């Protein structure tokens, strides 16, 4: 995900294999403030009757989101992207995807 883009993190995951912020904080005494910074921007959202959610303006600004937003599933989370940024940073060339697919699927 691009710099500053918000994530919807199940169990408030900090990173691959990191577990919860509480676990991260317990294993690294210097992590208290970093965990505080990460979770201080967390918000709970409730979908409306059509399944839409409103991303708070502060998170829209931080992620530089406006207008159309691309919702991208990424194994255990949902990412919100500006479609142009997604094309530039995420969508791989066919050669790159072929190499990765082979590693992932055999």
Keywords:
106 residues, Chemotaxis protein chec, 3 strands, 40% helix
Rough outline? extended
CATH class: Alpha Beta
* Largest sheet strand order: 1-3-2
Summarize model confidence as the mean pLDDT: 75
Which helices and strands appear, and what pairs or packs with what?
Elements: E1 7-8, H1 21-27, H2 32-40, H3 57-63, E2 70-73, E3 78-81, H4 83-89, H5 94-105
Give an account of the 3D structure.
With 106 residues, the protein is mainly alpha-helical. The protein has a single domain, classed as Chemotaxis protein chec (3-Layer(aba) Sandwich), CATH 3.40.1550. The protein contains 5 helices and 3 strands, in the order βαααββαα. A 3-stranded antiparallel sheet has the order 1-3-2. β2 and β3 (78-81) form a beta hairpin. The longest helix has 12 residues, at 94-105. The relative contact order is 0.15.
In short:
This protein is mainly α and 106 residues long.
